[in-house]
Specification:
The chain is 35% helix and 20% strand. It is α/β, with parallel strands linked by helices and 479 residues long. It has three domains: 7-38 and 80-114 and 267-340, FAD/NAD(P)-binding domain; 120-264 and 361-409, 3-Layer(bba) Sandwich (FAD/NAD(P)-binding domain); 432-478, no CATH class. Helix 12 (432-456) runs antiparallel to helix 13.
């Protein structure tokens, strides 16, 4: 390669790791960076639960990738989906082999997907929360169920339509349960007439003995008490055995619900298997301390798709949080730069910035080393850090203002059903609304028949006033 030629670095995935790698590599003029993602936006996943629970708009937690790199002329952004890699030729194919891209270095940051532990048939009934589509789908399901409950009244099982079941007691499950509980009791309280939203049941199921596995025991107990104070039913040590259209079955009970959300686990992306056969039992790619895929010299992997087994603090792999992905993306990029500069690559060392989870309004748990916070101060820290990690400044301002408005007024303004289509539950012939509609239709048809008979009659009305009355009646019958 000549001195003036550019090194081609292909980055697949515009998540936290991919964005950071592109930012670091894009500073070098002698590197041509191509960043590819199936979406044209970067998603701030930690706030997906607020989209699902009607707190935020999708656009407020996503930013256009192309706009982010608009000033980096050596960074090219493409919207496409990876479908194969030829490691010998160093070529990646996209969009069903519609086009290919050559590379000198490849950085894979395709993330993970929801893990159903061998029960993938549950996905349709209990969607996960990994994308904007997932969040909008969950929101639509809930709002449509509430609309059906309002329309049908006592005709159907109200508990099944209005109940929410969240499976998984990690940060995502806890945050979802808390948000749905507040949505039920505070936001929707005066919106419906056929049922009381405050009586809607929110249940959180965890197969383990406590919530927030890996957190301090006091934080776990505080979280449970806080959720129960919000009206959430917390079920511990209960594994799910089946999920159907009617609800969730555990080893102990059946919970009727059409609103089931799965937040119980994450596994590696299926794309990992096209690159290597060195993966763990959760489908995650095994990487070296330098973040190279084991056995490769020019392919790096970062983020949720990887298993980094070189940190004794995390024997099960690094936590699936934004700081870990960002740090991995930066280290992979710097190791590429080191190779180009003739320097030795460095091992990745994860700087643990802590972990946190919010539990509804004004309460959260936060832990960073020996420091542990619970309550309002932890919630304030949670707000600040999540605003800080949003990519675009305008998103930080918009989200902050929406949070302030919601905090003051209890008004969550994103309760719109997109792509509603036909109602999920249809009226039966015996429902009062159907009976009333049928009676009205029959009355109108009878009136129309009488009007037609009057028009066909040869009998002449006795006066102009009678003629006018007959014409009016006929017009009304036609309408």
């Amino acid at each position: 390669m000549s001195k003036d030629s550019q090194t081609r670095v292909l980055i697949v995935g515009a998540g936290f790791a991919g964005m950071k790698a592109a930012q670091v590599l894009g500073r070098r003029k002698n590197i041509q960076v191509t960043l590819v993602d199936r979406n044209n936006y970067h998603l701030f996943q930690p706030l997906l639960y607020q989209v699902a629970s009607t707190g935020l708009n999708p656009s407020e937690i996503s930013s256009t990738v192309r706009h982010t790199f608009r000033k980096r002329k050596n960074v090219k952004v493409l919207r496409a989906e990876l479908n194969s890699i030829d490691k010998k030729k160093k070529v990646a194919s996209f969009n069903d082999n519609d086009f290919t891209l050559e590379y000198d270095y490849l950085v894979l940051c395709v993330g993970g997907r929801t893990c159903y532990f061998g029960n993938n048939q549950w996905e349709e009934k209990a969607p996960g929360l990994k994308s904007l589509e997932d969040a909008v789908n969950i929101r639509n399901r809930l709002l449509k169920s509430l609309e059906d409950a309002e329309r049908l009244g006592s005709e159907v099982d109200m508990e099944q339509l209005t109940s929410v079941v969240v499976i998984g007691g990690g940060p995502t499950g806890v945050e979802l349960a808390g948000a749905f509980a507040e949505l039920r009791s505070k936001v929707l309280n005066n919106d419906y007439r056929s049922f009381e939203p405050k009586n809607v049941q929110v249940t959180l199921i965890e197969a383990g003995p406590g919530l927030l596995n890996g957190y301090d025991e006091k934080s776990s107990k505080y979280t449970r008490k806080r959720l129960e104070k919000l009206g959430v039913t917390v079920l511990l040590n209960e594994g799910v055995t089946d999920i159907s259209d009617k609800g969730v079955t555990t080893k102990e009970r059946f919970l009727p619900s059409t609103n089931v959300i799965w937040a119980a686990g994450v596994e590696g992306h299926p794309l990992a298997r096209m690159v290597t056969d060195k993966i763990d039992n959760r489908g995650r790619v095994l990487v070296t301390p330098e973040l190279l895929i084991e056995g490769e010299t020019d392919i790096y992997a970062c983020g949720d798709m990887t298993y980094f087994g070189h940190d004794e603090r995390f024997p099960r792999g690094l936590p699936g949080v934004a700081p870990a992905a960002i740090q991995q993306g930066e280290r992979a990029a710097r190791n590429i730069l080191a190779g180009l500069d003739g320097k030795e690559s460095k091992k990745f060392e994860y700087f643990d910035k802590g972990k946190m989870a919010t539990i509804g309004r004004s309460a959260a748990v936060a832990e960073a080393g020996p420091m542990k916070m619970r309550g309002f101060l932890a919630w304030c820290a949670w707000l600040f850090i999540h605003l800080l990690y949003l990519v675009e400044f305008q998103d930080r301002v918009i989200v902050f203002m929406r949070w302030i408005w919601s905090y003051i007024t209890w008004q969550w303004g994103v309760r719109i059903i997109f792509g509603a289509g036909e109602p999920d539950v249809k009226l039966t012939d015996s429902h009062p609304a159907v009976v009333e509609n049928n009676e009205s239709t029959e009355t109108a048809e009878n009136s129309a028949d009488e009007g037609e008979e009057a028009e066909a009659s040869d009998e002449v009305p006795e006066s102009d006033e009678t003629v006018e009355e007959a014409e009016i009646e006929a017009e009304e019958a036609k309408s």
